[in-house]
Amino acid sequence: MTEWTAAIFGVAGTLLLAGRSRLAGWGFVAYLASNAGWLVFSWEQALWPLFAQQLMFTMSSLYGVWVWLIKPARRGRKGFSQS
């Protein structure tokens, strides 16, 4: 069940980003949920290469949340920041 939930959040994240709407940044939040699910699944199954990959993807997702959501909010703007 964990892997299905992780997969669904991964697809949702991709669709949000692909849409390039004002909600696109939330795709990275969905990716974080997906990453968490894959980390749990890979840990439970002792799939260490997948676990290592998901750790790196989690870092990428955190960076995406920073660039798309936190940084613009701190500047008082909505949406994606080009700088």
Q: Could you walk me through the main structural features you see in this protein, from its secondary elements to its overall organization?
A:
The mean pLDDT is 93. It is elongated and about 45 Å long. Helices cover 77% and strands 0% of the residues. The N and C termini lie far apart (40 Å). Helix 1 (2-19) packs antiparallel against helix 2 (26-44) and helix 2 (26-44) runs antiparallel to helix 3 (48-74). It is mostly helical and 83 residues long. It has helices at 2-19, 26-44, 48-74.
Short summary:
This protein is mainly α. It has three helices and no strands.
| Major sheet description | none
Work out the radius of gyration. Answer: 14 Å
- Helix and strand element order: HHH
Low-confidence stretches are none
Question: How many runs of DSSP E, i.e. beta strands?
Answer: 0
Strand content: under 5%
Mean pLDDT: 93
State the assembly state of the protein chains.
Answer: single chain
Separation, N- and C-terminal Cα atoms? 40 Å
